[in-house]
Amino acid sequence: MGWILDLYRSAVFKKYVMAVTGMMLFGFVLSHMTGNLKAYAGPEEFNHYAEGLRELGKPIFGHGQFLWVMRTGLLIAVGLHIWSAFALSKHNREARPERYVRERHQKSTYASRTMIWGGVIVLLFVVYHLLHLTFGTVHADFIPGDVYHNFVVGFQSPVISGFYILANVALGFHLYHGLWSMFQSLGWNGSRFNDLRKKFAVAFALVISVANISFPIAVLTGAIG
Amino acid sequence: MGGTSSATMNLKLHVWRQSGPQSGGEMVTYEARDVSPDMSFLEMLDVVNERLIEAGNEPIAFDHDCREGICGMCGMMINGVAHGPEGGTTTCQLHMRHFEDGDEVWIEPWRSAAFPVVKDLVVDRSAFDRIVSAGGYISVNTGSAPDANEIPVPKVDADQAFDAAACIGCGACVAQCPNGAAQLFTSAKVAHLGVLPQGQPERWQRVMDMVTQMEAEGFGGCSNHYECEAVCPKEISTDFIARMNRDYLKATAKGRKASPGTGQSIGNG
Prior knowledge:
The complex is a heterodimer of chains A (225) and B (269). Chain A is 73% helix and 0% strand. Chain A has helices at 2-8, 11-36, 43-54, 65-95, 110-113, 115-134, 147-155, 158-186, 194-220. In chain A, helix 2 packs across helix 9 (194-220), helix 6 (115-134) crosses helix 8 (158-186) and helix 8 packs antiparallel against helix 9 (194-220). Chain B is an alpha+beta fold. Chain B folds into two domains: 9-118, Roll (Ubiquitin-like (UB roll)); 125-253, Fumarate Reductase Iron-sulfur Protein, Chain B, domain 2. In chain B, a hairpin with a 6-residue loop joins strand 1 (9-18) and strand 2. The longest helix of chain B is centred in the C-terminal third of the chain and has 15 residues, at 239-253. The chains are: A mainly alpha (225), B alpha+beta (269). The interface between A and B is large, with 46 and 49 residues.
C-alpha cells in the first residue's frame, strides 16, 4: 500500500483524484437535480419518489440499505475531493509565493480562479442543506417523510431561498471548470474532442444550476405550493 | 525591411531591482527617452542601461543571448504578461512599435519558488535543466551509424514531436501560471521523445522521472487555467499536458517508480 501514499504526494496524481471524485459528485448532483424535478409533479409523486430512494437495490438490498451504500461512497468522494483540493492549493501557493505588481490574466477564467472558494461555498451550503432538508434541524416546520411539505415551507423564506440560489450559482461556476478539467487531468483529450469538453461543461453546469435555482423560485412565485 | 519610423517615444518604466539572491527588491521608476519604435524591447533596455552606466549607476540585469527568438534565454514579465503583449513572441522579438508614446511599462522577473531571482530580472532556471536530465534521453546502439530513415516515423507523429520540440525552455509558462507550475514545459519535453519510435524504450520511465523531478523542484500543480499556453512564445499546446497526465497514469499502472536519485538533487531548496 506504500506505493499509493508515494503516488499521493504527486500533484498530478492528486488531480486524478480530483477528477474521479469530481465525476462521482457530478453524477450525484445530476441525479439529485433530476429527482427533484418530481416536485413539479405534485406532492404525491414527489413523496413517492423520496420513499422510492429507500427501496433502491431491491430485492438484493433491504429498506434504505443501498441508499447508505451510496451515501458512504459519496462521503468518501467528498472527503478525498476536499483533501486533494486543500493539499493542491497549499502546494500551489507555496510554488508561487510572490505576486506580480502588475497582473494580467490571459486564458484563465473567473470559474478557474475561484475553484477553491466556489468549493468552500458549496461545502458550507451542503452542510446547511443537510441540516435544513434532510435532518430538519434548522427547518421551521419539519415533518419527517413529508418531503414535499418540507420543500415548500423551506423555500417560502426569501432569505433561505436567496442562499440556495447564490450557492447554486457558485456550483454552476465550479461545475463548469471542473467538468471539462476532469478530462484534461485524466488525459482524455484530442483535437476533435476538446471543443466538445467545453460544450459538455457549459451544458451540464447550466442545466444543473438553472434547474436547482428554479425550485426556490417556483416556491417563491407560487408555481409550487 | 519596410519604412522606418522617425518619431521616437518616451516611456516610463517601473523595473524590479534586486541586488542579489538574498537581498530584498523593489520597483524603481526610470524614464526611457527617445525610444525608436524599431528597437526591440531588449534594445530599449540596452539604451536605458547605457544611460544608467553613464550616470554612474548600476545597469538593469537581464538575461539574453541569441536575440533571434530561439535560444530561450530572455524573458520578463511586461505589464503582467510573460514576454509582453504580442502572442507567440519572445521578449527579444517584441518591438517597441507595440507601445505608445507616454506608456507606463511594468517590468518584473519570472516569479516562481522554483525560479529564485539572481539579480534584477535574472532568475535561476536550472530546475528546467534537472527536469531534462531526469528523462531527456533515449537508448541507442553504439557502433556504426544506422542508415538514414531506417525507422519509419508517421508524419503526424513527426509533426507532433516537432511541435513539442519547439519548446525553448524560456520559463514563460511557469512565470504566467498562478501556481508557478511547469506542466507545459515538462509535458513538451516528455512528448518530444515520447511520441517517436526512438523514444519508446524509456517512454514510461521518462514520464515518471520527469514528473517526479518537476515536483521535487517545487513547481506547482496544474489547475487548467491555460495561462501558459497563452504566453508560450512557441505556442505549445496544453494538449501535451493531457498527454503527460495520461502517460503518467499508465506508467503508474505499469508499476513504474522514479529512478533512484530522481527528485533528490534539488538545487534551489
